[in-house]
Structures are given as C-alpha cells and as structure tokens.
Design brief:
By secondary structure, the protein is mainly β. The chain folds into two domains: 107 residues, no CATH class; 73 residues, SH3 type barrels, CATH 2.30.30. It is 11% helix and 37% strand. It contains two helices and 14 strands.
Length: 197
C-alpha cells in the first residue's frame, strides 16, 4: 500500500461506537464517508509521493500505537478521500486511528486517482460562470485572465499542485497562461472537472 502523510493531528470526533461517520452516516462536505482500512485496495487511489509523506505516515502509525491504553487490536484504522480525487484527479486522503469513540490521530496526504495516467486538461464548470486566473494563489495577486465555463486549463504538474489559502484551494496551471485558478472551498462543488467527464 502506498500511503503517506503531510499532517498529523489529534482530532476528537464523537460518533456512535465503531463508526466515525456518526449516527446519520453522512460525509462531511467535500469528503467521502470514512471507510475501514481493509477497503483501501479497492478504493482506486494512491497516496504518499515523497519521503516526507511516507515519514509522516510512519509517525502517524507510531502515534496511534503509543497514545492509547487500549490493545492495538482494538484500535481500528479508517480512511476517506476528498471529492477532488474523483473530480480533478488529485486531492487529499485522510487516515485515522479510531478507538471506538473518537479518532486518536488523523494523517493527511496527497492522493491521486489510480485510473488516470496523467491529467493535462481540466474543464471550467463554475457556478459563477467563469474562473479567474491569478499570478499567485491569492486574490491579492495580479489578475491575469478570465476563463468561462466549458473552456479548459492545463495543470502545471501531475499530481496537480494544490495550495490552500484564503479558505480556497488553488490549482497551479500552465495554460492558457501560467498562474493559479481557485477550485473553491472544500464545502462547495468546485470550479474544475476532468476533461474526460
């Protein structure tokens, strides 16, 4: 399994015993439902693309093993994916160790959709009717261009470089000009889609 980490944190999530999705079994906006670790192989994603991410995941596993008085066999490992993984091919995966009542630790890493060889085209589909291309991942930078719905942009890299700033996720693009496009916040439907959809 190719897993890695960028962030390690303790997160107290209250839900019914054995299920971090809560009593209503609904995902958080921008995320899939939490799934048990055994389902990773069927989830069609890869994560952990650097030594830093891999080291972070190892730290997460160690923290899970040492921060509970419970037997290791009683701690369950879960994962979930951000909606961006299926929508633009790159997003986040979160891994958590669950003691039956709360997450002891959460680890976040970059994730890509396995079925994609390379993403070199994203189509604009914004509720505003267009997106703005900025020189930097902030609305305080220089505005470069406006791109309407149905038009396409080319990500600078695969997996896409995504920067979070101003409560928005920004995607680095190389065409039609080099710059940054906002894909919106985790709670909305985003401004970009894979061109194959």
């Amino acid at each position: 399994m190719n897993i890695s980490a960028i962030a390690l944190s303790s997160l107290a999530v209250l839900a019914n015993v054995g299920n971090p999705n809560g009593i209503e079994n609904k995902p958080e906006p921008g995320w899939s439902l939490w799934r048990v670790e055994e389902e990773v192989k069927n989830a069609s994603f890869s994560s952990g693309f650097s030594n830093l991410e891999l080291g972070g995941y190892l730290n997460f596993e160690n923290a899970c093993k040492t921060s509970s008085e419970m037997a290791q066999s009683e701690i369950k490992y879960w994962f979930r994916l951000s909606d961006r993984v299926n929508r633009i091919g790159t997003g986040k995966a979160e891994f958590g160790c669950w003691d039956g009542k709360r997450f002891l630790h959460i680890h976040t890493s970059t994730a890509i959709k396995n079925s994609l060889e390379n993403v070199d085209c994203l189509r604009v589909k914004s509720s505003a009717g267009s997106v703005l291309i900025w020189s930097e991942p902030t609305r305080r930078s220089r505005l470069l261009r406006v791109i309407g719905n149905g038009k396409t942009v080319k990500p600078s890299y695969f997996p896409a470089t995504i920067s979070d700033a101003e409560n928005l996720s920004w995607v680095s693009i190389s065409s039609p000009v080099e710059g940054w496009v906002s894909d919106g916040s985790m709670k909305d439907e985003g401004n970009l889609r894979l061109c194959i959809h």
